[in-house]
Amino acid sequence: HSGFVAIVGRPNVGKSTLMNHVIGQKIAIMSDKPQTTRNKIHGVYTKENTQIVFLDTPGIHKRKSKLGDYMNQVALNTLNEVEAVLFLVDVSTGLGSGDKYVIEQLKKVKTPVILVMNKIDQVHPESLPPIILQYNELHEFAEIVPISALSGNNVNRLLDVLEHY
Ligand code: GDP
Ligand code: MG
Question: Rounded to two decimals, what is the model's pTM?
Fold first, then answer.
């Protein structure tokens, strides 16, 4: 099995931390190597018969220029071409305008979106369900996976889920 996964999310939610955890040292070597002009391969995860290529999708963020509109279209094209989109959010700060903007973009995409609730080490377990509800009201997600990218907690579960896409 092999496939492409795009990672989206507002700044500071933990995208790089997750990639570092999954791919380790390789990321430093690969992160500056452009795959196309605007999509960067963050890294490749390989385990037995599985290979997952992670893509950074910088154009998804809010921009106020014509170039920004173009970047957005490029990003949306990418998101439509991958097997799954990982939408990372930060449960310690909760739902914000940056998240809402990304969700609006994701509504234009047909690819399954996996909601990754990151930084669960920062909150009490009881506070997670209401946060999940907030996101669920805004969009239908294919899966919801809580993780801590920093400690690696539940990251293996996320990789297991990805093997099915
Ligand atoms: P990015 O902008 O989405 O790539 O976010 P980064 O990976 O650079 O992470 C932003 C900050 O959040 C850094 O200080 C990370 O150490 C921190 N961070 C990332 N994941 C976690 C997590 O699971 N738990 C905690 N407590 N901090 C995290
Ligand atoms: Mg980053």
Answer: 0.88
